[in-house]
C-alpha cells in the first residue's frame, strides 16, 4: 500500500502540460465574389491532392478574360504595324503631295515675280503685292511640311515607339495571364491530401473575396498542442519523449516534442491549475504515435518524464 501511494505521488509530481489535439489546417479563400454553383464534397470527407471541392460561377471572369485577350491581340497588331514600317502606297501618296505643293509654290513665286515690278511702278495696289508675297511664302511652307511628312514615312517608326508598343504588349499579356489564373481558381481544388473539416458556405451562397470556402485538416494523425509551464521549460527540448493522455481514452500514447516556442504566453483558462495559474507558459507541439483515429479538439495531458529532475 505504501509503495502504491509513493507511485501515485510520483505520478502526480511528474511535470505535465495541458492542451488539445490539433491538425494542421489549410483555409481555401474565395478568389472572387462569385456564386457557388456546385459543391462536390461534404464535411468529414477525405480528399486527395487536386480533388475538386467546389466550383464558382465563371461567367463574369470568363468575359473579362476574353476582353483582355482581345486587347492583347490588338496591341500585338499595333506592334507588328510599327515593325513592318510604312507601306509603299503611303510613300507614293506623300511624294505626290510634295510634288503638288512644289507646283503650287512655283506658281505662287511666278505670280509674285510678275506683280512686284507692277507694284514698283504703281500699276497695281501694294496690297496685291503683299498678298502675292504671302501666298508664295505659304506655298514654300507647304512644300516643307509635305517633304517632312515624306521623310518621316521613309524613315519608318522611331525605335522608342516600337519599344513602347512592345512594353504595351507585355503588360497586356501579363494582365491576361493574371485574369486566366483567377478564372482557373474558380474551381476550388485541394492543394494537399486531407480531410474536409468545414464548409462555411452552402450551394448558391456568394462569399466575399478572401472568405474561407473550405478548411482542410492535413496529416495522417493529430498532434498535441500543449502549454509547457515556465518552471520546466528549460528541461523540455525538441526530440524529448513524452506520454500523452487523451481525455476519454485509457491507453497512454507515446509522443515526441517536435517544436516549442521561444516566446512565452499566458496560460489559457483550461490549462490553469493551482499556483501555475499566474505563470507564463510556452506553446509546444507533440507528435503522437498511433493516434490516427483520434479527432481534433480533444483535451490532452502530456507528461514529460525526462523533465522531472
TrEMBL record:
Keywords, sorted A to Z: Coiled coil
**Gene3D superfamilies per the UniProt record, alphabetical:** 2.40.30.170, 2.40.50.100, Helix hairpin bin
Q: Where is the YbhG-like alpha-helical hairpin domain?
A: 78-184
Q: Cellular location of this protein?
A: Cell envelope
Q: Which InterPro entries match?
A: HH_YbhG-like, UPF0194_transport
User: Which Pfam families has this protein been placed in?
Assistant: HH_YBHG (PF25881)
Q: By what name is this protein known?
A: HlyD family efflux transporter periplasmic adaptor subunit
